[in-house]
Amino acid sequence: MAKDAVTIRVQSEDFDPGVETQRLHEADPTVGAVATFLGLVRAHPQEDGAVTTMTLEHYPGMTEKALAAIVDEARRRWPLTAVTVIHRVGPLAVGDRIVFVGCASSHRAAAFAACEFLMDYLKTRAPFWKKEATASGETRWVEARASDEERALRW
Amino acid sequence: MALSIKYFARVRDALGTSGETLAWNATWQTVDDLRQALCARGGAWAETLSREEIHCARNQQIAAWNDPIADGDEIAFFPPVTGG
Question: Where does the chain cross the membrane (chain B) (predicted)?
Answer without folding.
Answer: none
